[in-house]
Write a structure and sequence with these properties.
single chain, about 325 residues, alpha/beta, Quinone Oxidoreductase, Chain A, domain 1, Rossmann fold, 2 domains, seven-stranded mixed β-sheet, six-stranded parallel β-sheet, 10 helices
């Protein structure tokens, strides 16, 4: 039987590559040959921290959900052999860290062929940010703080300016990432964390705090810090996942006294037609956002552990670490 290479998380923090059977075509599903897959922060939380991972080893290919590839068999779905597609599966059934995947057509978006594949790969994460910004009220004339300048934070720099944010302040201790934020046009760059960062934001906002804070780091500390950075009656958008499966402390007193609005960002893949990802693809194809700086590191699937290690350490200027097949 024909085989493929597929990653498998075997224990907490350990991911290896196995050679397994390629899935057989099925009516109503699309068989896609993976070209590229990228590592998302949620993948690190699942593999390294056990977020919603109740038993190891995890399924082969899981939790990869950011990929591009070529359709081999459309399964009678309307997708045809040779189509180049974005694979954006729902996280619960994602298997993009495999050479081939059998996927429901609702999680596929046909892509142009005149744009570098590595750039189009970024449409998945940019699409989730597009989805998240549609939950926000008008930001015209408002001040925004974005915690973290990884790819999610940088995509927020781009999108929040487009929807009217007057002033964008970025918090990021990694100098290479903060430099990317400056190139994306943030108005102020804060290169410290913890209480020093909180003090800096208060100084920059005359002690009031921001109208909106986007938590794009994913830690217990930054989640609660976001409540300190926002003004009374302001809003917090939680994009990052918690760093533990255990219940996390919550600063209820600050949340309550400030009368804050707080929401999470999740579910972009479940929208019929994947409209947020189509908008992201259009941004990339039309040159409205330059994806070249985001494509920093690529590893062959055989080196998936090295790729995860780099994505976790954020060293060597890594923004988006991708796997090749």
């Amino acid at each position: 039987m024909p085989t493929m290479l597929a990653a498998q998380a075997t224990t907490l923090g350990t991911i290896r590559v196995d050679e397994i059977q390629i899935p057989n075509p099925e009516p109503g599903k699309v068989l896609v040959k993976t070209a590229l897959a990228s590592i998302c922060g949620s993948d690190l939380h699942i593999v390294n921290m056990g977020w919603n991972a109740y038993e190891f080893p995890l399924p082969h290919g899981y939790p990869g959900h950011e990929g591009v590839g070529e359709v081999l068999d459309g399964g009678g779905t309307g997708f045809g052999a040779g189509d180049f597609v974005l694979t954006a599966p729902n996280i619960w059934g994602s298997k993009t860290f495999a050479g081939y995947q059998l996927i429901d057509p609702q999680f596929l978006l046909k892509l142009p062929t005149d744009v570098p594949q590595a750039h189009l790969l970024m449409a998945q994460q940019l699409g989730t940010v597009v989805f998240g910004t549609r939950k926000l009220p008008s930001l015209v004339g408002q001040t925004v703080v974005i915690m973290g300048q990884g790819s999610v934070g940088l995509f927020h720099d781009f999108m929040l300016r487009r929807i009217g944010a007057h002033r964008i302040i970025a918090i990021e201790p990694v100098k290479e990432r903060l430099a990317h934020g400056v190139r994306m046009g943030v108005d102020e760059a804060v290169d410290v964390t913890g209480q020093e960062a909180t003090d800096a934001i208060m100084d920059l906002t005359n002690g009031e705090g921001a109208d909106l804070v986007v938590e794009a780091v994913g830690s217990t500390a930054t989640f609660n810090q976001s409540l300190q950075l926002v003004r009374p009656l302001g809003r917090v958008a939680v994009f990052g996942l918690p760093d533990t499966m255990e219940p996390i402390p919550f600063d209820w007193d600050t949340f309550f006294r400030k009368r804050l609005d707080l929401h999470t960002v999740f579910g972009a893949q479940d929208e019929p037609g994947l409209p947020a990802f189509q908008i992201a693809t259009d941004f990339i194809r039309n040159g409205e956002i330059d994806m070249e700086p985001f494509v920093t590191h690529q590893y062959p699937i055989e080196r998936v552990q090295d790729a995860f290690n780099l994505a976790s350490s954020r060293e060597d200027g890594a923004l988006k670490v991708s796997l090749t097949f």
